[in-house]
Design brief:
This protein has 14 helices and 17 strands. The radius of gyration is 23 Å and the shape is elongated.
């Protein structure tokens, strides 16, 4: 995939043109009101810029999983209303995304107007990537823009098929996301470190296998670390672990050594008998984990060691928490390391790129997300990029009709 072939909307004249913009408007909605507008806030600058350049901006998105049928609980109407408030201007909403009604709604737009079409997934052709559905969407616009990196790992009609029907360009958020990941993975300032956390090794084997050839230091945290500790012969008590993947953990460790990547595991841990708020917890050395103990966070000596390691790094990539941060006090390790990385970033000594739903939630809980070099709005797409996979939505932009 030649990413140098990506073209941005800065390179094309858009005044008087209708832009079909694939955005990701899949945000939390409670009682008909958007409860977290973070993802919308990130696309607003691009929408505003296109509008000011005289384009008619038509936004396409999925929302939820309606399985190819109309479901009013998954309508984009409340998201259109939230966008209107964020933009400080009227946003047209049309309750169809193809057909005569959608056509009429687009035809009456003036230059600079913004319109949201209804949930693409109300039609089975979207997720099936049917060419006829992509062609129907294409009749509504002059130019296709994909600004939804977070949906780029899906080969759907609006994320891939449309790129072959119209001149295709990458939106500013798409360019931002790709640029940040390339800077952290493909051409980073060295030494480089990565934090990979999460519950299970089984979900992150491709990520670990790819990263050991990309980074100098690989910090493994969360429940995943317990499987690696087991592989080292350490008793993890009643902790979440995957004994059947011990050999896989050993394979990754050996391969990392061959590639010059150092794997860092906890050297002390926080344990408890139950995984619930307010349960008594204590810090123990690895050889002090009792049979009924659950490892739920890294200990202070681990945080100190990892913080000292980061002092010598130039680039940090973060995906996944070090512990069960959602419940006190098992977020202390994640929050402490997050604060240290943020301080290094603010001082200009570290380029820090983070992504994934749990990671973003942890950084927000720590109050440092705004201090990182870049925090990705993507989940699955971020993970697949870390795995070294080609993302259909990105690849299509390099091979489409743009």
């Amino acid at each position: 995939m030649q990413l140098s072939n990506l073209k941005s909307t800065d390179e094309v004249e858009i005044e008087g043109k209708t832009l079909l913009v694939r955005a990701d408007l899949n945000v939390p909605v409670r009682d008909g009101v958007v409860s977290d507008a973070t993802r919308l806030e990130r696309i607003v600058p691009g929408i505003r810029a296109w509008s000011e350049r005289g384009a008619r901006v038509v936004l396409l998105s999925h929302f939820g999983r309606p399985k190819g049928k109309r479901d009013e609980t998954m309508s984009l109407r409340p998201i259109a209303a939230a966008l209107s408030r964020l933009l400080g201007r009227d946003v047209v909403f049309e309750d169809e995304c193809v057909g005569p009604k959608a056509r009429r709604a687009v035809d009456v737009l003036n230059d600079g107007d913004v319109c949201v079409l209804e949930n693409l997934r109300f039609h089975p052709g979207e997720e099936a990537n049917e060419s006829i559905f992509a062609k129907d969407l294409a009749t509504l616009g002059d130019i296709y823009v994909n600004d939804a990196f977070s949906a780029a790992h899906r080969a759907h009609a609006s994320t891939e098929g449309l790129a072959f029907q119209l001149p295709a360009f990458a939106g500013p958020l798409m360019m931002e996301e790709i640029g940040a990941l390339q800077a952290a993975l493909e051409d980073p300032k060295r030494p480089t470190a990565a934090v990979v956390g999460g519950a299970k090794v089984s979900t992150k084997i491709p990520v670990l296998s790819n990263l050991i050839s990309k980074v100098d230091k690989l910090i493994i945290g969360g429940g995943m670390a317990n499987t690696f500790l087991l592989a080292d012969g350490i008793d993890v008590g009643s902790s979440l672990a995957e004994p059947d993947l011990v050999d896989e953990a050993r394979r990754i460790t050996v391969l990392a050594g061959e590639k010059g990547c150092e794997i860092l595991l906890p050297i002390d841990v926080v344990v408890a008998k139950e995984f619930k708020a307010g349960t008594p917890a204590r810090v123990v050395e690895l050889d002090q984990v009792a049979s009924g103990d659950m490892i739920l966070d890294v200990g202070p000596r681990t945080v100190d060691a990892l913080s000292a390691m980061l002092e010598g790094c130039k680039t940090l990539l973060w995906n996944g928490p070090l512990g069960a941060f959602e419940i006190e006090p098992f977020g202390d390790g994640t929050f402490a390391l997050a604060h240290h990385a943020a301080a290094l970033t603010k001082s200009g000594r570290l380029v820090s790129v983070a992504g994934g739903g749990d990671t973003v939630a942890a950084l927000n809980a720590a109050g440092v997300a705004g201090d990182y070099t870049y925090v990705s709005s993507a989940g699955g797409a971020f993970l697949e990029w870390l795995e070294g996979k080609e993302l259909p939505g990105v690849a299509a932009l390099t091979r489409g009709t743009g």
